[in-house]
Amino acid sequence: MKKEEKLVRFGVAMPSDLLEEFDQTIENSGFANRSLALRHLVRQYVSEKSWEHDKGNVCGAITMLYDHHSNDVTAELTHIQHDFGGEIICTTHVHITHELCLETLSVRGSVEQLKKLEETLATLKGIQSVNIAIFKLI
Ligand code: NI
């Protein structure tokens, strides 16, 4: 059985219009109250940011949007993915429009290697957008 977590109350100040937007957003998302929504957001933020300073293994997904006509982006991407064959578990490629491709790499491995992979992809010419979501393996 999971040990009961001790809850701590604290005050937060924010602009009233931002709070209204937050309340509307959490209501639409189905959260019962602000505390539950904030806990969810804080856990997500901590998880998103903490992996970069870790030393162990992590897993996650790297999502990219690119124009497959741009330069040699398709060939370069294949080349990079072969270089990181030990980290990439699977690749999903979806043709979004005639030009645009959405590609998602499911990854696992060391923080060091996945940071290297992200940097390599983010600086590749022709890639419009790169998003990385990493989860710690606890
Ligand atoms: Ni495509």
Describe the structure.
This protein has 138 residues and is an alpha+beta fold. Helices cover 39% and strands 29% of the residues. The chain has helices at residues 16-29, 34-50, 73-83, 111-122; strands at residues 57-67, 88-95, 100-110, 127-136. It has a 4-stranded antiparallel sheet with strand order 2-3-1-4. Strand 2 (88-95) and strand 3 form a beta hairpin. The longest helix has 17 residues, at 34-50. The protein is globular, with a radius of gyration of 19 Å. Nickel (II) ion (NI) binds next to strand 2.
User: Kindly state the mean pLDDT as a whole number?
Assistant: 90
Order of helices and strands: HHEHEEHE
Tell me about the biggest sheet? Answer: 4 strands, antiparallel
- Distinct ligands, ions and cofactors found in the model: nickel (II) ion
Q: How much helix is in the residues?
A: 25-40%
By DSSP (H or I, 4+ residues per run), the number of helices equals 4
Strand order of the largest sheet: 2-3-1-4
Q: How many strands in all?
A: 4
What gyration radius follows from the Cα positions, in whole Å? 19 Å
Q: What is the beta-strand fraction?
A: 25-35%
- Provide the low-confidence segments as ranges: none
Q: Between the first and last Cα atoms, what is the distance in angstroms?
A: 18 Å
Overall geometric form? globular
Q: Specify the structural class.
A: alpha+beta
Short structural description:
By secondary structure, the chain is an alpha+beta fold. It has helices spanning 16-29, 34-50, 73-83, 111-122, and strands at residues 57-67, 88-95, 100-110, 127-136. It is globular and about 55 Å long.
